Amino acid sequence: MIDIAAFNKNLKNGHIENCYLFCGNDEFLMRENIRLLIKRVLKPDFIDLNYVKFDGNSLENFDAVINACETLPFMSDKKVVLVYRASFMEEERGYKSKLSGEFKKIKGYLKNVPQQCILIFYCVFKSKRDKPGRIIYSLDKDICVVKADKIKGYQLENKVQKFFQIRGKNIRKMDLRIFCNLMEGNNLSVIENEVEKLCCYTCGRDIKREDIQKMFLSGSEEDIFDVVNAISNKNLKRALYLLNELVDSGAKTNYILSMIERQFSMLFKIKLLLERGKKKPEIMKLLKIKSGYGYSIMVQQSKKFTLRQLKRSIGLCLNTEKNMKSLSLDGKTELELLLINTVA
């Protein structure tokens, strides 16, 4: 069993199998990668003649699927046969369904799919807690099984950035990270819809952080500033109180973390530039700080930390982000631990 990244690598290197089973929670991700496979093996002018689709939920038997596989491609080296939403492969009761006997028959056929054909199945898990069952594992030794898990972290950010680029929109890296952190569930289909909304809202101009705040945000940067200010004053009680206020007001924990990380990063840059002898106008221009008052406040705040403390705080933020994304830990608890560690 391989993941989407391994599938993409194999596709790029020209390693293409005769039979695939895609399984996972994200149907958008599966369909997108199947499109990449089809684009790689079929000529655009002959796709309609060499691409056959079947609805797995409507199949009475596999005769039509096998016949499609056995038919020679037209003006092409390959043809593609897709059985989508093949739920009979996901469910344990699949062997007892109306397709049980037929499925046992086609299992043997999967090992001998003709060289001129690429047969693809995909099944979407009903819950994010679902895992591949015995049916899928029994096929893994005979065909290429691709697990389409939700993408996260930098992979998700790169994917979402492409959504913006397709629509001719520019978005800064930090704003992109904030946007991704505000998206719940990492469902690419849902995220693409939100990207479309944001692009329509900002028609004719680049996306600004204020646009993301207006459309998706509860809470404000001032509240984040107050949290960091409490940390700089070693006032843990105040910092935890403000954190709880933010969470109770509806701010997403991912967003809070991103903004705390951004604030520490800004303080680090300001302090570093000041120590290198840079002046206020140059620093404001380099860091794109528009408010002279805001700059003065951040300078005062930066003086309460050493460069080492700020660097450590940024590292703690990155570690907290990693834990929240990869270990599915409670976001609020992780933020509380972050505040405790930064004050310590």
Automatic annotation (TrEMBL):
Reaction(s) catalysed (UniProt annotation): DNA(n) + a 2'-deoxyribonucleoside 5'-triphosphate = DNA(n+1) + diphosphate
Origin species: Clostridium lapidicellarium
Domain DNA polymerase III delta N-terminal: 20-148
E.C. number(s) listed in UniProt: 2.7.7.7
Protein's UniProt keywords contain Nucleotidyltransferase: yes
PANTHER family: DNA POLYMERASE III SUBUNIT DELTA (PTHR34388:SF1)
Protein name per the record: DNA polymerase III subunit delta
Domain (DNA polymerase III delta subunit-like C-terminal) ranges: 221-341
Family: Belongs to the DNA polymerase HolA subunit family.
Keyword terms: DNA replication, DNA-directed DNA polymerase, Nucleotidyltransferase, Transferase
